[in-house]
User: Fold this.
Amino acid sequence: MSSSITTDDLAQRIDDPARAPFILDVRANEAFDRWKIEGKTDVPTLNIPYWAAIADMAPVMEQLPAHQEVVVVCAHGGSSAMVAEMMDRTNVHNLEGGMDRWANTLVPRTLMDDDTHFVIQLDRVAKACLSYAVGARGGTMGIIDPSADVERYLAVAEEMDATITDIFDTHLHADHVSVARKLAAHTQATYHIAEGDAFEAKYDYAALQDGEEFTFGEMKMVVRSVATPGHTPGSTSLEVAGKYLMTGDAVFVSGIGRPDLGGETEPWARDLFHTIHDRLAPLDHDLQVCPAHYSSRTEAGDDGAIKRQLGDLLENDAIVSMADEEEFVQYVVEHLGTPPGQYGDIRKVNLGIIEPDDEMLKELEGGRNEGALTA
Assistant:
């Protein structure tokens, strides 16, 4: 009888060359090409569709390592379980819940915890999405850019013995469905987003204001701007504890948020240039930029967290450091591909215009994000 592995366990292994397994993905080739399991180092992967694997198992077995853990993956965990069972090897394991569960797996990484206040980065590794829990143990806390699984944020609150009072979206997300309003409804917290992004919203929200302050225990979170536009008109940056700058998708630890999702590529590219040079550059360069996304697990530090000193980003990133506006705009316009077709519908879901059923949610959330432009 074959064994299984959880997505939480797999998420902890894929960044470690000594522990990373071999992946046998038995989904259809098109599904695999759209989206696969990736880690900080290359994760060896073989894609053989389920029906081909069970038709002739011998050549599949020959391609698998004898002395490395093998994880068999499918969409939901059923087909992969059958393949793993047929192989009957002690080093072969089925991924519980398949890519459906992998899509919603969140890995917490502590950025700060002094036994009084905490800042936790939650990494949705399947989609390279980042969210944050900030607050005071035994007091109140806020959640920034939540996605995937409401229960994970509730678990953090329980672990910290804190009450979620405020939930923030740094911008109107287009590459994933926000669970901010769902989490706010569950916790009776206040949902915050900038009016520049949510003016078409079909729900109530608290509009973020420039310079607005939120306090969790003795720790302050300051709204540095509700006008760091470029990726979206109302993109917002939040400074936490004087140490961290949650930039949403304005800038990443490598590159920028693509400015074409609203169909205004050149004007929004100019907005983004001025966001970088007029709004972010004057801030403390020792701040750690903590974005809402990343492009690759290779951007993670030794602790697995995604962050980069603002001064380093401004000086050394190939795109962010461009000092000439025309050069910046030309680069952006020439290097953007076509945005994914589902992004328009995701925006409508996040505005409350479309109420998706479970199947639509799976379709919209399938695949990793494609919101970044890197050099």
Observations:
- The chain has two domains: 3-102, 107-358.
- The CA atoms of residues 112 and 118 lie 5 Å apart.
